[in-house]
Design goal:
alpha/beta; Rossmann fold; six-stranded parallel β-sheet; four-stranded parallel β-sheet; about 15% strand; globular; binds D-glutamic acid
């Protein structure tokens, strides 16, 4: 059993791709809708909410948890891995979404910059974005503030210029069921702000650096010129998990006899109101999704 965590609906975009890529694997999803959006919260709060949710997934029996959330991965993952896991859950592991994304953009593995000859991993070669020079990143205010994408991309591929855009409204709108017209207007304004910071450069690639944003991918595409690559974070995360489980099969769990064929077959937990969350998730995905409250 592998746990997948996000603040809200966004991680379902990752879960969906994980189910498609690893159909035998059993996934359990937990969304902290009660505290979403995370992206406008202070770091210590994001850390604590993330830690509590990961702990719930561990208690349910997941030994591996994917933080399907850029904000939680950026703010909480390193500290959870280096301080908390060792003391409280030494046999368990937590992975995030930032590393596979940066590997795909730069074409360089996470550890390669410590070696003399850069090494390219299989999943990067299969899906690498073609040598982008200018990458636009749409993300939450907390992810943008952390500078994780500009800093880590520059370490591996200094030739790439990263232009970030903090999207202040969009996650809240997605969570609260705003109309497509309202969200289109927000995305137009965010895309316009990013464009005004390009200083004459032309974008080669766009990263939707928040797992909520692929839910309105078409609205972003409407604002993006033809020929610009849109980096698919769910695909990169799924391929990275395949690589990880090949190296660490002990975290794969027992195959589920083909039961998990899609997100509607996964167990979906929420810290929010299950009926309300199920209704909104169903609207976003166009199929019935049944969230339940966390056990006791
Ligand atoms: N979906 C999350 C992300 O990828 C967080 C959104 C939020 O709660 O602000 O950043």
């Amino acid at each position: 059993m592998i746990g997948v965590f996000d603040s809200g609906h966004g991680g379902l975009t990752i879960l969906s791709e994980l189910c498609a890529t690893l159909p035998q694997q059993k996934f359990i999803y937990l969304a902290d809708h009660a505290h979403a959006p995370y992206g406008s919260r202070p770091g210590p709060e994001i850390y604590e909410f993330t830690r509590c949710s990961v702990e719930r997934l561990f208690e349910i029996g997941c030994r591996l948890v994917i933080l399907a959330c850029n904000t939680a991965s950026t703010i909480a993952l390193h500290r959870l891995q280096t301080e908390w896991l060792a003391t409280h859950w030494p046999k368990n592991r937590i992975l995030g979404v930032i590393v596979p994304t940066i590997e795909a953009i730069t074409g360089v593995t996470w550890l390669a910059r410590h070696r003399t000859v850069p090494e390219r991993v299989g999943h990067v070669e299969r899906t690498a974005i073609h040598a982008p020079r200018v990458v636009g990143v749409f993300a939450t205010p907390a992810t943008v503030r952390s500078q994780v994408y500009p800093i880590e991309i520059a370490r591996r591929a200094p030739r790439i210029r990263v232009v970030q855009q903090a999207c202040r409204e969009l996650v809240g709108q997605i969570e609260n069921g705003a109309t497509r017209k309202q969200m289109a207007a927000t995305i137009k304004a965010d895309a316009g702000e990013l464009a005004s910071n390009l200083g004459g450069d032309r974008l080669d690639a766009i990263l939707l650096g928040c797992t909520h944003f692929p839910l309105v991918r078409d609205l972003f595409e409407a604002e993006i010129d033809d020929g610009i690559d849109l980096v698919s974070q769910p695909r990169q995360v799924a391929l990275a998990l395949v690589d990880y489980l090949q190296r660490r099969p002990e975290f794969a769990g027992t195959p589920d006899g083909g039961a998990a064929t899609g997100i509607d077959k996964c167990t979906l937990f929420t810290s929010g109101d299950p009926a309300d969350v199920s209704m909104r998730a169903g609207q976003l995905f166009g199929r019935s999704l049944a969230f339940q409250a966390l056990p006791g």
